[in-house]
Specification:
With 698 residues, the chain is α+β, with helices and mostly antiparallel strands. It contains 24 helices and 23 strands. Strands 2, 3, 4, 5, 10, 17 and 18 form a 7-stranded mixed beta sheet that branches. A 5-stranded antiparallel beta sheet has the order 12-11-21-20-19, sandwiched between helices. The longest helix is centred in the N-terminal third of the chain and has 29 residues.
Length: 698
């Protein structure tokens, strides 16, 4: 019995020895590389040096966004921790030099966690923490000469983003801005499997505009310094270092001189509107606006601006809380919103080119006469003219020239009836809605900028979806009314309650009023200025629906052309060429005999013909908004479409028209030399010198 027990013990001991021996052999041979790497990882840490971002250049090679050198002061926390007092005396002396509080510096050196919020450091624990940027060179020299008083304090020249604004061109909504990468951006890089460029929360990333759209192109590859550290985290030395590689450069279609002129004329239009009184003797608030200058043949965006705007340099070094609060305050009226392509509204009578094309496609004659009465009655409501008088029987051409709303009300009403009215046929033709979609409205243009608004074509399908989404709210309002509003505006409150009751019961129906409003660019339709410029470009170029774009080429830091961005294949508008030719003829007539004739008084129309359409869009509870759409020269070789709108800015001819004319005069050299060589956008690319400066295209 005892012998059996001894045997069992011996077997167990032998098994344990074999197991331990096998494990030891596995660790020393099979798994050795893995554990060597793990051990190395425990003693080597990486410090990332962000790469200088690439330049963003205009079409002539002028920098719109670049980098400049500044002296940054940073502190090595490990060096501070090695001091007998953990660096307290160093921070006290440093605070005196920087004219700040020592407590503020200590807060900035803390590691950010879920409980520790800004100010704190969210970068690598081995990265020196920036405490001050753009410090005076004399201050940097003083610190360098007294290293014994400032151990762990560094002053380095670094590259920071700079928005140069050549000729005063702001271009903020096109360029965008950069700031610290957010969690989504970091996660996206990790998910894409990108290790270089490495995107950490302390690194910069484009947040809007071109800076965001082409962030990967502009960011370059960060430098990596591998540091040897002991088990306590103390740095023992540098293992190796890879320098940062600057980002590539982006050549754009924007021309800085045209951009500056467009921005100036947009502000002039806003100021102009604020000096004019409406029929109630109220001045127009003109709270915002936008302008687009588009190459009608290629879709290249020559200039694009929105107002109010912002300074992208505000984000350099981190935007101050007070500055951000001002930009996002409701009273600021959303200066961060890119209104030219990210916002829109009813385009008013500029939309009548769509209605006219639809009418011709539906069989209406260019030779017939149409009654331009003061009002057109539908059911129990009179739909009246806004900009025009009662002209009696006129042609369709004249209806566009004088912008007679009642002619288009009647045509839209007849089309609605032909589709079955309130009891529509199985497949209604909806000629005007179909034509709007053929011109690309209701869908993104595809411009290479983030945040584009698709717009809206308020057709039968939208009417049904909107009713389903808002029915409960309208039914509640039909029952309760608007008691808060009733105390100050009883008439409006009563109207809104009746409207809510009608929408609750019958909001899904596409009625004659919807059709009439659609025909003159009113109602629930939303068009962006960029979309409208694309429509007029298609008329100008004979039916090609260009795709707007801003990026023209990518250049290496040494100036080599890496690629050119070619516009994507573009479709043609499904419209008869004779219809396009007729629209062209009519729009020229608007500038010589119609609502835009006053705008172009004295313009050399014989030598440089212009096509245009005015628009004044009404909004319930607001003053009318100004729209003006144009292209020039309106001949066999058209070049530019220009669209401007001013929210609550009055009429198209009175507010936006003069500014559009001024932009076109600068582009085409009317009464002055053209701002572009030969009045045309450059075909060739600018070139970069070895020192990073650029040369204009030859």
């Amino acid at each position: 019995m005892r012998a059996q027990r001894v045997l069992v013990v011996q077997v167990v001991v032998l098994a344990m020895m074999l197991t331990l021996g096998g494990r030891l052999w596995y660790l020393q041979t099979v798994a050795s590389p893995q554990y060597v790497a793990a051990a190395s990882a425990n003693t080597v840490r990486e410090m990332i040096t962000p790469a200088p971002r690439g330049l963003i250049l205009d079409d002539q090679g002028r920098p719109l966004a670049g980098d400049r050198s500044r002296i940054q002061l940073s502190v090595d926390r490990a060096a501070l921790a090695a001091q007998p007092d953990r660096g307290e005396a160093v921070l006290d002396r440093l605070a005196g030099l920087l004219r700040t509080k020592p407590a503020d510096l200590r807060h900035a050196l803390r590691t950010c966690t879920a409980k520790v919020k800004a100010p704190c450091w969210n970068g690598s624990p081995y990265q020196p923490v920036p405490l001050a940027g753009d410090i005076d060179p004399q201050l940097a020299l003083s610190i360098s000469e007294r290293r014994e008083l400032y151990p762990g304090v560094r002053t380095d020249q670094i590259a920071v983003r700079e928005y140069t604004a050549p000729y005063g061109a702001n271009a903020a909504h096109v360029l965008g801005y950069v700031s610290s990468a957010n969690a989504d951006q970091s996660g996206a890089q990790r998910s894409a499997g990108r290790l270089d460029p490495r995107l950490g929360n302390a690194d910069l990333a484009g947040q809007t505009g071109l800076e965001r759209q082409y962030d990967d192109l502009l960011r370059g590859t960060p430098g990596v310094t591998r540091l040897a550290v002991d088990h306590l985290g103390n740095v023992l030395g540098t293992v190796d270092a890879t320098p940062a590689v600057p980002g590539n450069n982006l050549v754009t279609t924007i021309d800085a001189r045209v951009q500056a002129i467009a921005e100036r004329e947009l502000l002039a239009a806003i100021d102009r509107a604020r000096t004019v009184k409406d029929f109630r003797h109220r001045t127009y608030p003109a709270d915002s606006g936008s302008v687009v200058v588009l190459d009608v043949n290629t879709g290249a965006v020559v200039a694009m601006a929105s107002a109010p705007t912002f300074d992208p340099a505000a984000w350099v070094g981190g935007i101050k809380p007070g500055a951000y609060a001002m930009l996002t305050d409701p009273s600021a009226n959303s200066p961060l919103l890119p209104r030219a392509y990210g916002s829109g509204g009813p385009p008013g009578s500029t939309f009548k080119v769509i209605s006219t094309a639809a009418a011709l496609g539906a069989g209406y004659s260019t030779l017939s006469k149409y009654d331009c009465n003061r009002t057109f009655r539908i059911a129990d409501r009179d739909f009246g003219n806004f900009e025009s008088e009662a002209y009696g029987p006129i042609t369709l051409e004249q209806a566009v020239e004088v912008s007679c709303d009642t002619v288009f009300y009647k045509i839209a009403y007849e089309m609605w009836q032909n589709d079955g009215g309130l009891d529509p046929v199985a497949h209604p033709l909806d000629p005007m809605q179909t034509m709007a979609k053929a011109f690309g409205l209701g869908a993104p243009t595809g411009i290479d900028l983030p945040g584009e608004l698709a717009g809206r074509i308020a057709d039968r399908d939208w009417k049904q979806r909107n009713w389903q989404a808002t029915k409960q709210r309208d039914c509640d309002r039909a029952r309760t009314g608007y008691p808060d509003l009733a105390a100050t505006a009883p008439t409006r409150a009563a109207f809104l309650q009746r409207l809510a009751a009608d929408n609750c019961a019958r909001g899904y129906r596409y009625g004659p009023g919807d059709a009439a409003n659609f025909a003159i660019g009113q109602g629930d339709t939303i068009v962006t200025p960029l979309q409208l410029a694309r429509v007029y470009a298609a008329i100008a170029n004979g039916g090609t629906l260009v795709r707007p774009y801003v990026a023209k080429a990518e250049l290496a830091p040494d100036g080599r052309v890496l690629r050119q961005f070619k516009p994507a294949g573009v479709p043609r508008v499904a419209v008869d060429p004779s219809t396009l030719a007729y629209l062209h003829h009519v729009l020229v007539g608007v500038t010589t005999a119609g609502t835009a004739a006053g705008v172009y008084a004295g313009w050399p129309s014989d030598a440089v013909p212009v096509a245009a359409k005015t628009g004044t869009a009404e909004h319930y509870g607001q003053q009318p908004s100004s729209w003006f759409a144009s292209y020039a020269p309106a001949g066999p070789h058209p070049r530019y479409a220009v669209v401007m709108t001013v929210s609550q800015g009055g009429t198209g001819s009175g507010t936006s028209g003069p500014s559009v004319r001024a932009i076109e005069a600068a582009l085409l050299g009317v009464d002055r030399a053209p701002v572009l060589p030969h009045g045309k956008p450059p075909v060739r690319l600018p070139t970069l010198n070895s020192d990073g400066t650029s040369r204009k295209p030859e």
